[in-house]
Design brief:
Helices cover about 45% and strands about 20% of the residues. Helix 1 links the parallel strand 1 and strand 2. About 30% of the residues are buried. The two termini are about 40 Å apart. It folds into three domains: about 170 residues, NAD(P)-binding Rossmann-like Domain (Rossmann fold), CATH 3.40.50; about 100 residues, 6-phosphogluconate dehydrogenase C-terminal fold (Orthogonal Bundle), CATH 1.10.3660.10; about 70 residues, VC0802-like (2-Layer Sandwich), CATH 3.30.2130. Nicotinamide-adenine-dinucleotide binds next to helix 1, helix 4, strand 6 and helix 10. This is Prephenate dehydrogenase. It catalyses: prephenate + NAD(+) = 3-(4-hydroxyphenyl)pyruvate + CO2 + NADH.
Length: about 375
């Protein structure tokens, strides 16, 4: 018998999950999104098998519910669940970037047929919406699970099975462990990236050429400031208390660095940079698991004759040798994705630079 999975929110994350879940033969996917065009696209491309406009109706048909909406909307849906007249058990999960209020709502659910295991795939993009969704988005990424007080080990296992095609690696944490760690490595850096953009914008008033000088460094460190402001407003407010405390620490730290410069402490400044480099260089790259140790890039291509040939031709002209090439997704009339593997990280990085110079959109798999 097929398992029915309802996915609410078919944007970047929900759409990418749907692309993986609907690949499973024993799963029937119902999709729901407030944006009708999104639902139609997903239905037409076979990423969902059925579209629904009624949460209360669709939820009664589902065995598993995935809430992939903005966090505050996810909490609203969780609150609605208590009143649904369920005739069979429903395992609920979400994808929210902050967990405390979501788990608070989930832990309050008393309906005997409901269980909740929170989820957060640690992969994403500064892009939003269904058109940015990709089936390989979660490959080799960490997928954090945060079970509610009533959830069993078996329910967490069921979700791992459901998401087995994503290629993600699962880790389980408590809500506060999750929120503290993501504040450090995701939410706070986002806040700083936005502040750097504001600083540049201010300076541009007196130095109009600033925007033309902004090269690799500025663009690398501020890429995430181009993300969906509504989503990040939600994230900042969901994790507000921790962010305030981190801002206090950061201001102290910046005061220390300011003193190094003020007092011309060149050795201490050097050590500060050395220690940051050592920690940064030691960060694990996305683990490859059972996949052989190749260095992959993902290249977006358009569905037109010769598209793959053009990409390979550019690499061949530069004598870059390819170890493997795979078409991950190509449907009529839409953009497809090529996964190209290289033997060395030099070839991987070199190819990315080369293709980007030719206006391709390239994602590097670390
Ligand atoms: N963007 C990332 O990098 C990232 C990574 C991991 C987790 N997340 C989490 O994923 C969730 C979704 O983020 P996203 O980046 O996919 O956003 P998105 O904007 O790409 O997608 C959200 C989708 O939800 C739909 N939606 C909004 N309100 C709805 C409603 N009331 N009913 C039905 N559909 C509704 C929107 O139309 C949209 O298609 C958020 O909770 C976020 O914290 C985001
Ligand atoms: O790659 C990006 O653009 C992201 O911002 C992804 C990112 C992150 O901070 O790493 C953003 C939010 C999520 O909750 C998880 C992942």
């Amino acid at each position: 018998m097929k398992e029915t999975v309802l996915i609410v929110g078919l944007g970047l994350i929900g759409g990418s999950l749907a692309m993986n879940v609907s690949e499973k033969e024993d799963v029937f996917v119902i999709g729901m999104d407030k944006d009708e065009e999104t639902m139609n696209m997903a239905l037409k491309q076979g990423v969902i098998h059925q579209a629904s406009k009624s949460f209360s109706k669709a939820v009664k048909e589902a065995d598993i519910l995935i809430l992939a909406t903005p966090i505050s909307i996810t909490i609203e849906f969780l609150n609605q669940l208590e009143d649904v007249d369920l005739s069979k058990p429903l395992l609920v999960t979400d994808v929210s970037s902050v967990k405390n209020k979501v788990l608070e709502a989930a832990n309050k659910l008393t309906h005997p047929r409901l269980s909740f295991v929170g989820g957060h795939p640690m992969a994403g993009s500064h892009k939003q919406g269904y058109t940015a969704a990709k089936p390989h988005l979660f490959e080799n990424a960490i997928y954090v699970l945060t079970p509610s007080i009533h959830a069993t080990e078996a329910e967490a296992e069921r979700l791992k099975q459901l998401f087995s095609k994503t290629g993600a690696r699962f880790l389980t944490f408590t809500t506060s462990e999750h929120d503290e760690m993501t504040a450090v490595i995701s939410h706070f850096p986002h806040l700083i990236a936005s502040s750097l953009v504001h600083q540049a914008r201010e300076w541009q008033k007196t130095h109009p050429y600033i925007e033309h000088l902004a090269a690799g460094g500025f663009k690398d460190i501020t890429r995430i400031a181009s993300s969906n402001p509504k989503l990040w407003q939600d994230i900042f407010f969901q994790n507000r208390t921790l962010l305030i405390s981190m801002l206090d620490d950061w201001i102290d730290e910046m005061q220390t660095v300011r003193n190094f410069l003020q007092e011309q402490e060149s050795e201490q400044t050097y050590q500060y940079l050395v220690e940051a480099k050592q920690y940064r260089d030691g960060l694990p790259v996305r683990e490859k698991g059972a996949i052989p140790s190749f260095y992959d890039i993902y290249v977006d291509i358009h569905d037109q004759p010769g598209a793959i040939h053009d990409v390979i031709g550019l690499l061949a002209d530069e004598n870059i040798s390819i170890k493997n090439i795979q078409i991950l997704e190509i449907r009529e009339g839409i953009t497809g994705v090529l996964r190209i593997s290289f033997a060395t990280s030099e070839d991987q990085v070199g190819s990315k630079k080369l293709l980007e110079k030719h206006q391709y959109e390239v994602m590097l798999q670390q």
